[in-house]
Write a structure and sequence with these properties.
Family: Belongs to the G-protein coupled receptor 1 family.
Protein name: Melatonin-related receptor
Strand order of the largest sheet: 1-2
Keywords: Cell membrane, Disulfide bond, G-protein coupled receptor, Membrane, Receptor, Transducer, Transmembrane, Transmembrane helix
Strand content: under 5%
Domain G-protein coupled receptors family 1 profile: 1-258
Main location: membrane
CATH architecture: Up-down Bundle
CATH class: Mainly Alpha
Number of strands: 2
C-alpha cells in the first residue's frame, strides 16, 4: 500500500473510532429528547383541557400526576444537559481517559444515575405540597410560595449548580479550542475533527438557550422565596406568565437546534415532512435505505458529518 493510501486508511480508522466514541455521548442527547417529550405525553393535553374549561376540572390526582411529569421533564432536561456537558468535557479535554470513563457499562450507569437523581429531586414536592394548580398558567406546577427554604433549595440545586457545572465544562472546552487553534499554525497534528466541533457547538447552543429560557422563571422564584410577602405581590402576572411559557417553550427549541445545526437531522426532517404529504415515500425510503445498506456500507470518511479533519 502506498504512503498516501496508508495515511487515508489511518485517518479513516481514526474517524471511525471517533464516531464510535461520540456515539456514547449521543445516548445523553437521546435521553434529553425523551425528557423534552414527556411534557407532550400528559401535561400539555390536560393544560389544554384546563384552558378549555377555564379552570382545573380533573381532580387532585391528575393534578399531582401532571405536576410530577412536568417536573420530571424539567429536571430531567437540566440533569441531562449537565451530563452532556460533562461528557463533552471528558471527550475533548481528557480524550486519553475517555474510553475508560465512558465505556458501555459506565455510560449506562451514568444515564441511570441521571434519571435516579431526577426522580429523587421531584419526590420532596409530594411531602411539601408544592405541586398545585396555578390559574395564571392553567397548569399544576411548582408553587414558589409554599416553602421559602424549599424554593431556594430547588433553584440552587436544579438551576444554579447545574448552570455552574455546565459553564465550567464549556469554558474549559473553549480554552482548549483556542489553544489548539494557536498551536495548529505551528503543528499541523493539533486538530479537531469537524464532527467534534459541530457536536460541541450544537450542545453549547442548547445550553445557552436553556439558560436564557429558564433564567427568568428561576430568578423570579428565588426573589419570591427570599421575601415572599413583599416580592410576590410585586411580580406582575404577565411577567410570571411570560417567563413560565418561555421556560417550557425551551422543550420545543432543541429539535429546531438539531435541525438547523446538523445536516443529518435536516435530511430526516425533510423526509418526514415529505412523507406526510405522500406516506408511501416513507416506506419506499426505508426499504431503499435497507437495501442500499446491504449492498454497500459507506466509509465514515465519506459522510457529510465526518469529513477530513478541520483546523479550528
Amino acid at each position: 500500500m502506498s504512503r498516501k493510501g496508508h495515511q487515508g486508511a489511518e485517518r479513516g480508522s481514526k474517524e471511525l473510532e471517533g464516531t464510535a466514541r461520540s456515539t456514547k455521548g449521543n445516548i445523553f442527547v437521546v435521553s434529553l429528547s425523551v425528557a423534552d417529550l414527556v411534557v407532550a405525553i400528559y401535561p400539555y393535553p390536560v393544560i389544554l383541557v384546563a384552558i378549555f374549561h377555564n379552570g382545573w376540572t380533573l381532580g387532585n390526582v391528575h393534578c399531582q400526576i401532571s405536576g410530577f411529569l412536568m417536573g420530571l421533564s424539567v429536571i430531567g432536561s437540566v440533569f441531562n444537559i449537565t451530563a452532556i456537558a460533562i461528557n463533552r468535557y471528558c471527550y475533548i479535554c481528557h480524550s486519553l481517559r475517555y474510553d475508560k470513563l465512558y465505556n458501555q457499562r459506565s455510560t449506562f450507569c451514568y444515564l441511570c444515575l441521571t434519571w435516579m437523581l431526577t426522580i429523587i429531586a421531584i419526590v420532596p414536592n409530594f411531602f411539601v405540597g408544592s405541586l398545585q394548580y396555578d390559574p395564571r398558567v392553567f397548569s399544576c406546577t411548582f408553587a414558589q410560595t409554599v416553602s421559602t427554604s424549599y424554593t431556594i433549595t430547588v433553584v440552587v440545586i436544579h438551576f444554579i449548580v447545574p448552570l455552574a457545572v455546565v459553564t465550567f465544562c464549556y469554558l474549559r472546552i473553549w480554552v482548549l479550542v483556542i489553544q489548539v487553534k494557536q498551536r495548529v499554525r505551528q503543528d499541523s497534528k493539533q486538530k479537531l475533527t469537524q464532527t467534534d466541533l459541530r457536536n460541541f457547538l450544537t450542545m453549547f447552543v442548547v445550553f445557552v438557550l436553556f439558560a436564557v429560557c429558564w433564567g427568568p422563571l428561576n430568578f423570579i422564584g428565588l426573589a419570591v422565596a427570599i421575601n415572599p410577602f413583599y416580592m410576590a405581590p410585586k411580580i406582575p402576572n404577565w411577567l410570571f406568565v411570560l417567563s413560565y411559557f418561555m421556560a417550557y417553550f425551551n422543550s420545543c427549541l432543541n429539535a429546531v437546534i438539531y435541525g438547523v445545526m446538523n445536516q443529518n437531522f435536516r435530511k430526516e426532517y425533510k423526509r418526514i415532512l415529505m412523507s406526510l404529504w405522500t406516506p408511501r415515500l416513507l416506506f419506499v425510503d426505508t426499504s431503499k435505505g435497507g437495501t442500499d445498506g446491504i449492498k454497500s456500507k459507506p466509509s465514515p470518511v465519506g459522510t457529510n458529518n465526518n469529513q477530513a479533519d478541520m483546523c479550528v
